[in-house]
Amino acid sequence: MTDSNRYHPSRAQARTPLHAPRRSPRVALVATMVGLVTLLAGCGAAGSGTAGAGHQVGGEANLALPDLSQVDFLGGMNGRMLLAVGLVVCLFGLLFGVVTYSQLRKLPVHRSMHEVSELIYSTCKTYLETQGRFLLILWLIIGAVIFAYYKFLVGFGWGRVSIVLLFSLIGMAGSYGVAWYGIRVNTFANSRTAFASLEGKPLPVHSIPMRSGMSVGMVLISVELFMMLVILLFLPGEVAGSCFIGFAIGESLGASVLRIAGGIFTKIADIGSDLMKIVFKIKEDDARNPGVIADCTGDNAGDSVGPSADGFETYGVTGVALVTFILLGVPNVTTQVTLLVWIFVIRAVLVIASALSYFINVAITRARFRDAERMDFEIPLSNLVWITSLMCIALTFLTSYALISDMGAGVWWKLASIVSCGTLAGALIPELVKVFTSTKSRHVQEVVKSSRQGGPSLNILSGLVAGNFSGYWLGIAIVGLMAVAYGISTTGLAAMMLAPAVFSFGLVAFGFLGMGPVTIAVDSYGPVTDNAQSVYELSTIEEIEGIDEEIERDFGFRPDWETAKQMLEENDGAGNTFKATAKPVLIGTAVVGATTMIFSIIMGLTQGMTTGIENLSLLHPPFLLGLITGGAIIYWFTGGTIQAVTAGAYRAVEFIKENIKLDDTVTRASEADSKKVVEICTQYAQKGMLNLFLGVFFATLSFAFVEPYFFIGYLVSIAIFGLYQAIFMANAGGAWDNAKKIVETDLHAKGTALHEATIVGDTVGDPYKDTSSVALNPVIKFTTLFGLLAVELAVALTARGLGVLVAVLAVVFFLASAFFVYRSFYSMRINSRLEDTGADDEFEDEIEQAIGGPVPLAAGTAVPRHAESVERPLGTVPQGR
User: Fold this and answer.
1) Taking the model in full, what pTM does it have?
2) Which pLDDT score, from 0 to 100, does residue 32 have?
3) Would the pLDDT of 420 be above 80?
4) Domain ranges of the chain
5) CA atoms within 13 A on the CB side of 417
6) What three-state secondary structure class fits 73?
7) Are 843 and 44 in contact (CB under 8 A)?
8) The pLDDT of residue 260
């Protein structure tokens, strides 16, 4: 390869090169450790003191579970025996996942596609191993606070503290482990899906990613439920409540890190790869583009690893919130046991409901599409969601009647109805999301139409409109269902618990995730379909000599190349839509469930709602200030995530431009160049995640130490601001993404100015939908959970006469948070001189010189940029295509 065959900007040498992000200065780590050591010292000094009057040491984070065997169900089976059956259900779920995994491995695949998928998996492994080491470092910081709380303030012995710390590690390992499982299953499925498309039949192209998604969903939910049942059944009651808190904090830590870093990684790679289509006029997933392997790795890091860890955490944290409420808000021990057993039996039953619904949907889909030449790939996915929702609602009522019908006053149907509000939301919200993100959506078509004449500017504006409108409709839907739940809670539940409305909101979140395996499955469908397209192109299978005869000889069919590519494109559009539908479900669950956990904190602060209630008012200035402060954190956080993507994508684009080889003798990028792009993405993901996570971590500590009710206002604020910011960003990004898909699949207009406009919109939407919006979910839950410990620490230290230390620590922690907020932009800036930004004015001429001729269009797109294809009505196909 001669130097003339590579792209080098004419004035690149005069430009200051962009280096990897600078390492965190030692002062940052020193400040972190000084703050934590000071906290530990303060707690140690306070350890021998006594709490102030009326203050219960440990409070809401030190709850004892009642004996579950003291209540009988179903004619003599006590609670422990009944929950032990739940362990069997979990083993069934794990068996389902393992069998599906084995079946996927055995599906036929051509060696060229298999090699690509294994390369993707190897880069995913490297990424996850790096994240695993980093997680352990962050756990040491979180573990220090957990240790200080339970050892010095609660007074646990070394053994009990060790158990709580162990379960925080188990929670983190659970999030990490299901992420590993998800990428392994998905990287098996992507190459099998790509190969199955060659038969020209759509059913296998749908069924393979659907099976892989259900495998991930069933394993994830079963592992989570199994761990929680182990805590309930096998740990002493006096330590089990604390282990639930430790477990939830650990899984929340794992999900936060994997979501933030994965979201940054995937969008650096995606933008870096996509922009090459505009720069060099090459086709989608061109094998010569070194960024494509990183893009595929990112699909798994962001759209598989992140959602798997996030779903695992969301399912667990929602359960912990309900357990905490029951122990704090329900005074009667028998009622506590009854509700605890009811909740976990419902969870086990709904795992079975998800599996049954999947098999029913498979039978319906096969009967309808077995011999079909074409299919709408969204139909079976929508059917699965609705079948599961109806099945879960029916079994919720049946199980509730069987277990708690003797509680009187119609409690069984009231609680079942409240849970069903959430389950219905789990099906209704995806339908609303499709109104704004589906390829059939009028909002998405509006984005395409506006792009025709207005280019990227109107494309972006139309996408923003879709996101804003979605915030209205989804917000009203969530509020409406919560209002129904509240209405039901006013019909007599106050006789058995404090604040029944708050419990009803927790049950709505519980119902959201009632069909958890299916929610995870349709979310996992997307990265497989996206990767399948890339695997097809990267394998260059069409260029293998004698490939038609080889496939016919070895696999028994003759490949249909054009149909295969068309189906993979269409299936990717369906995957994009359903990835978008899962995001509001998870963020909605986080926010609705957070209200229950916030109430647990309030219960501790108000001594069971008996004192200090007046502080939960706008007339209490700290509470009002907290409400205002939350928005500042949410807007900084979304800006910080996008800045990390921007800086990393700049570096990736710079590297790809300088190393891409486009002459006719090269068929694919070198593995070394591809891995270098992966390395760039990993560096920026790590650095961005460190600044963002530590900024949130120290803000949580600081605001908890400022004033307890200030912190309550802050928690409410980040939940509300976070909900609407996440919905807006997720659906705006989804609209931009599928607008591009319409241009590529329906209009067949790749390589045109219209296509370029939608690519620009898509690259803006990438960090919106897959970085910022999705990371808000675990951040809200982590802040609420960790804040439970932090505010209790502050209150206990103040009650022991260490108010000055608390005030000093609040300032120290705020300065630490502000330091990392500062670094999230200023240490992530593009390291290039402003006066050199005009260096590419003659960019197209330089590209033509580098590749030895005029800039080519993508394969099969001979129409020039100004062609009439840009002007034709939406939905028509240009002549000659």
Assistant:
1) 0.87
2) 62
3) yes
4) 22-543+569-831
5) 14
6) strand
7) no
8) 92
